[in-house]
Amino acid sequence: MYRSHTNGELRASHINTEVTLSGWVQKSRDKGFMIWVDLRDRYGITQLIFDAERTPTDMMEKAKSLGREFVIQVTGTVIERESKNAKMATGDIELLVSKLEILNEAKLPPFTIEDETDGGEELRMKYRYLDIRRNPVKNNLIFRHKVAMEVRKYLSDQEFIEVETPYLIKSTPEGARDFVVPSRMNEGQFYALPQSPQTFKQLLMVGGMDKYFQIVKCFRDEDLRADRQPEFTQIDCEMAFVKQEDILNVFEGLTRHLLKEINGVEIEKFPRMLYDDAMRIYGNDKPDIRFGMEFGELNEITQHKEFKVFNDAELVVGIAVPGGATYTRKEIDKLIDWVRRPQVGALGMVYVKCNADGSFKSSVDKFYDQEDLKNWAEKTGAKAGDLICILSGATTKVRAQLSALRMELAERLGLRDPKVFAPLWVIDFPLLELDEETGHYHAMHHPFTSPKPGQLELLATNPGEVKANAYDLVMNGNEIGGGSIRIHDKQIQATMLKHLGFSDEEAKAQFGFLMDAFEYGAPPHGGLAFGLDRLVAILGGQETIRDFIAFPKNNSGRDVMIDAPAPLNNEQLKELSLQLDIKA
Amino acid sequence: MYRSHTNGELRASHINTEVTLSGWVQKSRDKGFMIWVDLRDRYGITQLIFDAERTPTDMMEKAKSLGREFVIQVTGTVIERESKNAKMATGDIELLVSKLEILNEAKLPPFTIEDETDGGEELRMKYRYLDIRRNPVKNNLIFRHKVAMEVRKYLSDQEFIEVETPYLIKSTPEGARDFVVPSRMNEGQFYALPQSPQTFKQLLMVGGMDKYFQIVKCFRDEDLRADRQPEFTQIDCEMAFVKQEDILNVFEGLTRHLLKEINGVEIEKFPRMLYDDAMRIYGNDKPDIRFGMEFGELNEITQHKEFKVFNDAELVVGIAVPGGATYTRKEIDKLIDWVRRPQVGALGMVYVKCNADGSFKSSVDKFYDQEDLKNWAEKTGAKAGDLICILSGATTKVRAQLSALRMELAERLGLRDPKVFAPLWVIDFPLLELDEETGHYHAMHHPFTSPKPGQLELLATNPGEVKANAYDLVMNGNEIGGGSIRIHDKQIQATMLKHLGFSDEEAKAQFGFLMDAFEYGAPPHGGLAFGLDRLVAILGGQETIRDFIAFPKNNSGRDVMIDAPAPLNNEQLKELSLQLDIKA
């Protein structure tokens, strides 16, 4: 062992003992006759001291030569510090070095290894192994480990069994794109990497393994948006002989356990909200309920005048911005510009200032009187001093736009406190979702989700209305988990696949093994999957998952550190019976 | 919830309480006026009773209709059994059913769901979800979960951090073949699936994360031998600021913990053996030391006569088979046939019977006298009543042949008791291995393994002699783990790669990121990886890893249950810029 103690360990009680430490040179201060070196490892920093009176000359010279990030081993005596540092765990002592060995030299790092670094994102990714030396990244990885351990402990204590499902599976051209893996031994054939272990966990239920979980990597070949990764980690769970209520309770229990053990926060009972209500009140199926600013639907009290924009709109809806009545004209114009950005896409915004004196001033005073505006204020919950922001248009679009505005304003107003945790179950999701491009319905969750009892018949006549036994766990405006009660009947599964546009042959080729399994005694079952990356980030009080992944990929799916992906040599391609087909 | 209790839970103390159970019909006995049904779930079996006196007629009829593996839910009263079954945990009671619901029917399974099934391997794999209902498979999966949990608990308690490393990495045409993954977003480029997280864990050490572990899937595109899987699971570990001794101690501690917690076996200190000694004494780098039958090298005492076969041999070596002197001529001939099978490859076998009266009878009496044979007996440790089996030839080959014979005989003699655990460290492996086909040396462990101090110079002159800081943990004749102290110096790593035949360009393209990392302050480090599948099988007293994997692949790398791999459609290929190149 290159050390007797870590650099976070020594205290006043160690004074006068001889110890050996190893680590990286964080920094050194050379006063000529005296040199102090901060020695760092994963556990902390210990101050080393070399001084001309007590340290041999050659060692003084060697100490002077130490550069930042040199790896050294020192032996010495723990002594009391003259000027103690209460901010450091080891601040009472320092090490008078009697032996110094340079284990490895270091080039000057391309960015500073400090909590606040001067390195940009791209540079930090390229030298991720240096970035990991920084406390914020290191602590995030340790935090992630702790969360994963608590998840395993809790579920295992509840008799869940972690079962490893295969990574080399079969491609199913449904939902997102699969990453595929050519098989050398089976010429012309490919495995796929799992987008989730969905079918395998259902087969485990058929196999009687009635409480399953797995912390598992999943893969999706999507065009990456910001903060999406081609490979990501799920806490994947499934239970048999349960109803929706049981699943909500079990995983509410898990989440409550994590909030308590990891964050020291106790939350009694998670509220539940219907999907339809979430959309109506927050314009969003993952509402952040740490703050209000609930939607007020205004059709009835806006469409009785000559204002064509509102009269033509499917939905007129507003929110009250606390204290927004003081916004200047310029500030409001900027807000209007913000909602008109292509990412949001509103055509314009109507606003009403709720003055302190109880009067109102709006951008549509030409059309509406004070009584009208008072009604709007009432409907949106606006008080004197607030600003009402109103958008109008097609329901789906305008809800999304106003939701974006609501989140943006809350961010600006500091209402999204990362230390506050507001979990929420959103339930009764629609079974199907209309693809506006193709005009076809596809499964909102996945094709194995069961419809609410008695709604199967609606599939033929009014597919968009069918509600599913599907639920999401939302925290602070982020979906952290989602699941459903599955279909466990072969006939219903076949009907569902038919409605989703699968021919009998396609259904058999892709899901035949699952439907076969349903014929051999499938129990009622359901489950849920958490996005571990997101969960950890949110429990850690942050929203960027990349900071909680040891070696993330960039937005083009590249690992810039190892420079992957990369071309294969021709021999490898030949062995796989493949040729490149690159467009000129 | 479809149940108030599990089928393994009810005891005499529950008598007269009303409960609800769910599960699968294991079997039913219909005596006309009375029907008993064994209801099974993951936790056990509970006997249900329907009887004409107490059960309504329609329910009797329904009970009669129940087939094997039907999924049912029953409510009823726990009553005392007339004839108790001491072999069953629930054998004191039975359930008098008052409500019966069929949750799902079942076709007759293609094999019996019993501990001893009539299903063959292929059939059981195709219907793996039914196979998992059987106790032996189910219990293996639960056992695996327990082992994995104990590993995580132990290492986490020792301040190891589990860090997830990426699955989409870069292909390195070294060692086994990579599975590759075409990148749609980076045309003509491929990711590779990791054969192990080797370089990433070393980068974590450079990053200061000084105790790392991960239970992680690894991938190797090899022509599959029996009991090899294209995807397998490793307990991957790495530590910084350690020497070989530290690593051996830490992971001996882990293994000792597992033996104690999982098997209830306490083992004080694991023996250590030099690789050279293992090869000399057992002909094998993973010797099974549960039994003796050590090799006796006989060159000196066999090459002084006219027996050309021995005189021409590089090595003459024998083992004593306990009690083998009673083997008939026919039995011995069969043994000779066995060593001459192509899988073993010996040309013949010389034998000596050590008779009870102290005399010897050998197949080479023409050449050797009693004094010679007595010397051989002494050298091989043969006692009166034993049989000495002697092979001769080129050292490497003959050692492998005699080792195979030793293991086969031990198996036949019942010396390989799966309840006995004999761990062993084999240390000081050679750094390089000669590839007989190409005449080139390649890394025996991997190119990042460090040579023993002071042996670097030997690389140029006598590469085969260089020993490495490399070690394997062996248990009961199986390698369950292996690792090494790594190189942490860029220059030494460059020298090593050069000796392994990498040009500077190749070295830079494939391992440039690692060698760059070594310039920024790399600490001394090393590690080890356990094969989890193998470890679990051995702790479970078995040797077939497939029985401990939920969804294994067959010897052609196929998942016969989901029928993967499978062809892709043309659109998918086109999106990936690929064409098939199938030989006619």
Write a structural description:
The structure is a homodimer of 584-residue chains. With 584 residues, chain A is of the alpha+beta class. The first copy, chain A, folds into 3 domains: 12-104, OB fold (Dihydrolipoamide Acetyltransferase, E2P) (Beta Barrel), CATH 2.40.50.140; 138-272 and 423-548, BirA Bifunctional Protein, domain 2, CATH 3.30.930; 291-412, Gyrase A, domain 2, CATH 3.30.1360.30. Chain A has 17 helices and 23 strands. Chain A has helices spanning 57-64, 121-126, 128-131, 135-157, 198-206, 244-263, 275-282, 299-302, 308-311, 329-340, 370-380, 395-412, 458-461, 490-499, 504-517, 532-539, 570-575, and strands spanning 18-30, 34-41, 44-51, 71-80, 93-104, 161-162, 180-183, 189-192, 211-219, 231-240, 272-274, 296-297, 315-321, 350-354, 360-362, 387-393, 423-427, 432-434, 441-443, 470-475, 478-485, 525-531, 578-580. An 8-stranded mixed sheet of chain A has the order 6-9-10-22-21-20-17-11, sandwiched between helices. In chain A, strands 1-2-3-5-4 form a 5-stranded mixed β-barrel. In chain A, a hairpin with a 3-residue loop joins strand 1 and strand 2. In chain A, helix 4 (135-157) crosses helix 6, helix 4 packs across helix 16 (532-539) and helix 14 packs antiparallel against helix 15. Chains A and B meet through helix 3, helix 4, strand 6, strand 7 and strand 8 of A and helix 3, helix 4, strand 6, strand 7 and strand 8 of B. Strand 23 (578-580) of chain A pairs antiparallel with strand 23 (578-580) of chain B, so a sheet runs across the interface.
